[in-house]
Write a structure and sequence with these properties.
This is ABC transporter ATP-binding protein. GO terms for molecular function: ABC-type oligopeptide transporter activity; ATP binding; ATP hydrolysis activity. One of its GO terms (cellular component) is plasma membrane. The structure is a single chain. The protein has 20 helices and twelve strands. It has a six-stranded mixed β-sheet, sandwiched between helices. The chain has a four-stranded antiparallel β-sheet with strand order 2-1-4-5, with helices on one face.
Length: about 575
């Protein structure tokens, strides 16, 4: 909870003023029944209209004050709770930006989305109730009880017993409901995961006519959530009839015994009227408290889930004196071993050794899952290795400031990930302070300028839905331009031409060749024509480098590369 409350920050004033105005509102409301009794006893029953007008004016003034105080309390409560929610989302988002891929894998993308939306909304609602209703209800209940005992202590003990009875029932119900609410938010993650997966893969779903199958999966997840909510809400719903039972029992008892007190002259009509008002105030306060406990029960799971994100420490750390500038692009791997799940799965890389001089082009080939992309993930330091060392410019990669490291690496991937915005903005994403001229020069270098100028609004054409209004080859050229404007010393091309046709590949390859000139480049590909001219080609299999050399050397060796290049596969067992 302390982690959450630390996020109030600039909304402390609103958080403090809310209960103050709420307390003033309650004081006004508690005095109103007392004034009503004075009007009945000293005014109406004695036919003294002057007293009626005097106390009526006081009552009107108090009602106006109560309305003002209530409005101010509501305003500040809304400001404080909305501000807390805003700060929570911002802090979580900033924290997530520092996460390594291993941290993100721990929570899952769907889980993080749920925490930033549903969980934060729950905390926002609970916080607003706590600073307003949780102040109003107990204060109203205590002051109403005090006024009731001042009027008649014997009758007041009756609904005091009712309060104790109701509190016991409420405690039992909430204890049972809290267990169910903890499961509810886990099911929210499953539901969001189903939605995210379906929407991102909608083309595959429609291509295989699997709409009914996906609907069935979603319905199952939604039904599980529904069943849990019904179970939790059914427990909580028992509170209302129990509340009404106590309220009506108290009213009946007070009516019965109060009438006797009036007959024997121990109470006045005004006092019994006020007592009824205070009874209802106490019971309504109890009902509000029960709502608060329900909301707190629901939000406690959300508080814990949000705190987990805010307290999560990235598995990647900068050294105490990190290197902030890099000179060239030489890279060394020395006996590197890596597993995505340390100690829980097989190693993705095994004893990797390689040395790449600045300006060299290295081609990496191999079957799916052999470890090609894992090497680039480690160069970017998306993950930390378990054994061995990786050096960049002769410096241990863990001693380089992460932003400096990643700014020196340009990436062109198979999945281009363009953003909603103009073509110019997507190119400038590689260097946010780049001028229009720099972006256009980068587009020309990437062979993208000609097709961009044919677009309806040229460089100001708005891209939507990850650039779906462009062809795949055009999106790839924009990705190359985005990397070019950053002007990195090291370039990583990960299957950059695998999903485009041969004719478009030629255009994209020309753009990549221009970009690769003078840079240390990793080219990961299935197509051997893409890596044929590399200074060094590495062949990977099951996390190991099984062959390395130039194209000519590997052909002469007649090993795995030779088999792939010629299509002459031989069983080497």
């Amino acid at each position: 909870m302390r982690t959450i409350l630390n996020q109030i920050r600039q909304y402390k004033k609103a958080t403090i003023l809310t209960p103050i105005f709420t307390a003033l509102e309650v004081i006004m409301e508690v005095l109103l029944p007392f004034i009503t009794a004075m009007i009945i006893d000293k005014g109406l029953q004695q036919e003294n209209m002057k007293v009626v007008y005097q106390y009526g004016a006081i009552m009107l003034l108090m009602a106006v004050c109560s309305l003002f105080f209530g409005a101010m309390a509501g305003k500040y409560a809304a400001s404080a709770s909305s501000g807390l929610a805003c700060n929570l989302r911002e802090s979580m988002y900033e924290r997530i930006q520092t996460f390594s891929f291993a941290n993100i894998d721990r929570f899952s993308t769907a889980g993080l989305v749920t925490r930033m939306t549903t969980d934060v909304t729950n905390v926002q609602n609970a916080f607003q109730m706590i600073i307003r209703i949780a102040v109003r209800a107990p204060l109203m209940m205590v002051t109403s009880m005090m006024m009731s005992f001042l009027i008649n202590a014997q009758l007041s003990f009756m609904f005091l017993a009712g309060m104790v009875f109701l509190a016991i029932i409420l405690a039992i119900l909430l204890k049972q409901a809290s267990r169910v609410f903890n499961l509810v938010f886990q099911k929210y993650d499953d539901l969001n995961a189903s939605i995210q997966e379906n929407v991102s893969a909608i083309r595959v779903v429609k291509a295989y006519v699997r709409e009914d199958y996906e609907n069935s999966k979603f319905t199952k997840a939604a039904d599980q959530l529904y069943q849990l909510f019904v179970k939790a809400e059914s427990l909580v719903a028992i509170n209302n009839p129990a509340m009404m039972l106590v309220v009506y029992a108290c009213i009946t008892a007070v009516s019965w015994f109060g009438t006797k007190f009036i007959v024997i002259g121990e109470m006045t009509t005004g006092e019994i009227t006020s007592l009824f008002s205070y009874i209802m105030s106490v019971m309504m306060s109890l009902m509000m408290l029960s709502m608060i406990f329900v909301m707190i029960t629901m939000s406690s799971a959300s508080v814990r889930r949000i705190s987990e994100v805010l307290k999560e420490i990235s598995s990647l750390h900068n050294s105490e004196s990190p290197v902030k500038e890099l000179k060239d692009g030489s890279i060394d791997f020395k006996h590197v071993n890596f597993s995505y799940k340390k100690g829980m799965g097989k190693e993705s890389l095994k004893d990797i050794n390689l040395h790449i001089e600045s300006g060299e082009t290295v081609g990496v080939i191999g079957g799916t899952g052999c470890g090609k992309t894992t090497i680039t993930n480690l160069i970017n330091r998306f993950y930390d290795i378990q054994d061995g060392k990786i050096r960049y410019d002769g410096i241990n990669i863990t001693k380089i400031k992460k932003p400096a490291l990643r700014k020196s690496l340009g990436m062109v991937l198979q999945d281009t990930h363009l953003f909603t915005g103009t073509v110019m903005e997507n190119i400038r994403y590689g260097k946010l302070d780049a001028s229009d001229e720099e972006c256009i020069s980068a587009a020309k270098l990437a062979n993208a300028d000609s097709f961009i100028r044919r677009l309806p609004d040229g460089y100001q054409t708005v891209l939507t839905g990850d650039g779906n209004n462009l062809r795949q080859g055009q999106r790839q050229l924009l990705a190359i331009a985005r990397a070019a404007v950053a002007d990195p010393p090291v370039l990583i091309l990960d299957e950059a031409t695998s999903s485009i046709d041969t004719r478009t590949e030629s255009l994209v390859q020309d753009g990549m060749d221009a970009l690769m000139n003078g840079r240390t480049t990793f080219v990961i590909a299935h197509r051997l024509s893409t890596v044929k001219n590399s200074d060094c080609i590495m062949v990977m299999e099951q996390g190991k480098i099984i062959e390395r050399g130039t194209h000519e050397e590997l052909i002469a060796a007649k090993g795995k590369y030779y088999q792939l290049y010629t299509g002459n596969f031989v069983d080497q067992k």
